[in-house]
Amino acid sequence: MTTKRRLHPIAIVAGVGKELKNMLLPLLVIVVAGSGSDFSWGDLIVPFIALGYTMVMGVLSWVRFTYHWDEDTLQVEEGVFVRKKRAIPFERIQGISLTEGVWQRLVGAVHVRIETAGNVLGEAEVTLAAVSREDVRRLQRCIEQAKERAGSLTEPEDLADWQQLLPSLFTLSMKEVWFAAITSGGALGVVAAVMAFLSQLGDLVPYEALFRNIQATWNGYGRWCIGIVSLFALLIAYGVAIVQNMVRFASFTVRKQGDTIVITRGLIERKAVSIRVDRVQGVVIRENWLRRLFGYATVSLIHAGGALDDGKQGDVVLCPLVKKERIAPIARACLPEYDLDVTFHPLPKRAKLRYMLRPLYWLVIPITLAAYVGRPWGIWLLLVLPSAAWIGARRHQAAGWAISASQLALRSGWFRQTTTYMLKHHLQSLEASATWWQKRRRLATISASVMPLGTSARVVDVDEADAAAIYRWLQGKKGNQT
């Protein structure tokens, strides 16, 4: 058993910096609201107290956090006021991600995040904010030896030496990093964050009076001025989103060591994520209309664990941007059990009208009212209705399903087309349902889910005979099908 160890002292700086970043907006609102029109040093009392408390708690948290391990277990003790002790068996560890943030890189440490097979998703996760590379190697060797004794590891993995891994299976070039950034659509997220920030200042900033003053100052051209400013703000947000994605996906590389997929990425904050092949529950291919126009797509893995890659739970990006013809070879190299070269069965022609009418159900009334109120020019809004019907027809054309001896694939969507591949033994549930209208047209909806809970894919308006065949396939009552 190793002696009790503490994190590198740089963890204090990283932890305090993160807390202060989260507190910045509330403290700013408190200072502005407290000062009103006259500023005084007394308005800074609350921020100074918060700053002092955060720094003291950061130091105490570091002092009280210790970890050590023996041949089979990692033990962590933490807590300033309430002491918590956790013991994590090595054989339950399902994924490890390493991150080199700005602070960690200054001292040659790494941020370690360990995902375990906890009863509740993500609850049993262990985070070591700043650990030396030598400690990481020792811990990994102990984990490897424990898994070898349990018979669940074929080859050792060493994430601490990212440059000594096997040749890459996929690498994102700088040209592809740039294209992935400009087609990511992340500008909407930046705009939403800015709008949320401005809404917090609604009681302090008189927006309505400000807009009236702009209109009066510009002699009736205030609307044009506001529109131009809004356009520039959107372009700036789009630029920020591009920079964020370029920093995130720079040096993106996928390698494989034995039964483990290792993904490394990042420019400022370098990260390595390891995923056991047997923990992959499915493969998802996403294509927005712009990337599909140039023959590109995004490939993600459904992972039975937490948010290893700072995304949503159970989702890890395997290829941020890749030519569609390269997807199948990369998937075969990483996940030999999956077959992405399958032929999809289209939906029946009688379902096309339902797809065309579905978007009109909620568009007809508001579009008609808007066209009436905005007449005569508002009449052009009615063109939205045939456009929506056309998009529905494209969604019908794109949707489909495919089954083989051991795999189910479902495809849906058009603006953002999603294709999900799931192995039979990973399926948690398969549901075939039909509404009254679907029964009249002999149609059904197929929905399949895998771990983690809530991860599912579905196709609407499948032929009811095909839905029954898929259901029997899961029950094992039919042989191989293509």
Automatic annotation (TrEMBL):
Residue ranges annotated for the YdbS-like PH domain, each copy included: 62-141, 250-325, 397-474
Bilayer-crossing regions: 20-39, 45-65, 177-201, 221-243, 355-371
The record, for InterPro entries, names: UCP026631, YdbS-like_PH
Q: Which UniProt keywords apply?
A: Membrane, Transmembrane, Transmembrane helix
Q: What is this protein called?
A: PH domain-containing protein
